[in-house]
Known about the structure:
- By secondary structure, the protein is of the alpha+beta class.
- It folds into three domains: 2-63 and 109-182 and 275-351, 3-Layer(bba) Sandwich (FAD/NAD(P)-binding domain), CATH 3.50.50; 71-101 and 185-271, 2-Layer Sandwich (D-Amino Acid Oxidase, Chain A, domain 2); 361-405, no CATH class.
- Helix content is 35%, strand content 28%.
- The protein is built from twelve helices and 21 strands.
- Strands 1, 2, 8, 9, 10, 11, 19 and 20 form an eight-stranded mixed β-sheet that branches.
- Strand 1 (2-8), helix 1 and strand 2 form a beta-alpha-beta unit.
- Helix 1 (12-23) runs parallel beside helix 8, helix 8 runs antiparallel to helix 9 (332-356) and helix 10 crosses helix 11.
- It starts with a strand and ends in a 10-residue tail after the last helix.
- Flavin-adenine dinucleotide is lined by residues 8-14, 31-34, 41-43, 45, 136-137, 164-166, 170, 271, 290-292, 298, 301-305, 307.
Amino acid sequence: MKTDVFIAGGGVGGLALAVKLASRGVHVTVAEQLVKKSSAYKGELLQPKTLAILDRLGVLGETEASGHVIDQLRFLEIKRQSGALPEEINLTELNYSRVASSYDHALMVPHETTKEILREKGATYPEYFHYLSGARFLGFENGQAKVRQQKTIQYVEAHVYVGAEGRSSPTRDAMNVRVKRQDYNHHFLTVTIPRPSDFNKGKIITTARDFLGLFPLPDDEVRTVFLIKAGTFKQVKEQGLEQLYQAYSELEPELAQGVRAIEDWKAVQLMIPFTYHVDRYYKGNLALIGDAAHTVHPMAGEGMNLAIQDADVLGELLAWCKQNDVPYHDHLHYYEDVRKPRVKFLLNLSHLSAMVYSVPYTWWRNIRMRAVQRMYDDDQLHVKQMLNISGLGKWNFTLFDRAIQGVSFPPAAGQ
Ligand SMILES: Cc1cc2nc3c(=O)[nH]c(=O)nc-3n(C[C@H](O)[C@H](O)[C@H](O)COP(=O)(O)OP(=O)(O)OC[C@H]3O[C@@H](n4cnc5c(N)ncnc54)[C@H](O)[C@@H]3O)c2cc1C
């Protein structure tokens, strides 16, 4: 089989790339190993930049209709009290509206729904979009992609081969790039539970030791992310679900009833955060996007967004090559030039967010609380933070910014 661009992996990154290319008249073949929807949790928060990309792909309407709007993130520091309501110590609200853009919110969309929307869009370009379901990419043979679909082996010949297989990537292996991994002192438990219908803001609830992230989904559900010490999942399970119910209820009493919907530990997924970043995004006519190239700490909810943003930039480049009839592989370095620094920046930002929440001492919590509050008090810091996490822009934090957060300098402007 011949195609312009072969994509190994039909996750959010691979599909976004395929839709973009097909919409621009580039013939694309996607090999996806799965046949059915995956039940594994894989991220649901679409940042504003991703919404802008989905808009250009012509699928924003469906995506918005399937999502829950997050216009604000609330950071709530509390004193947890056994058998009593928590005492609020500090509340800071960071608003997406601080970024002057029509994409002024994030969106919580079930991961498989985003993929389905993209697949359906791809199918509207039957001449260019070729999707192989249940097709596992095995590696390269004689410069062609070897794919096993059911029991049949087929070879796909392409001008460019893109590895979008996620964390375990045969394309990355074939490129023989360097990967440096970093692990953390904490893991997360994640589970979706029912929520009251007026519980509709994204919330991070913390004490000196606890962390509970709450991100409302459509249909009165909420994605919850609860921090545990690395390697303690077995112990936590042995303590029983009652302990989990109690922790959730003491941190967020509004979810005291919803959390009891968890009937079995099987519903709770262990999420082990780690990060890596490859040193090369392309070699010859091979390129990597998304988790095949980098994994960020989930704290900032950026992984899926980076994959779609990689796809957007690579797609634009490859479509331009096709349009101008120039060899694809001569221009792949532009993709790396644009994406690598941007991803590195977000990797650092996510790492910093992780550090802010992973030191379980009261003195550290006090520093964190001041730093987050100062981000709200200082107009410029607030805009910088939201611009950076939204993906719509990049504005480096300076030493002066950090001094403001550390309360060495007064905030630049009040709100
Ligand atoms: C537990 C967990 C929680 C996460 N939480 C968040 C979050 O809150 N926010 C966020 O933005 N991101 C989150 N992420 C990260 C996010 O899911 C990824 O960054 C994102 O899905 C990357 O997209 P991708 O397309 O690069 O890879 P993936 O989504 O992993 O897609 C890869 C696809 O390739 C297929 N595949 C793999 N190997 C082959 C092969 N050999 N042949 C054919 N097909 C293959 C897979 O079946 C899959 O469909 C989380 C990830 C995990 C694992």
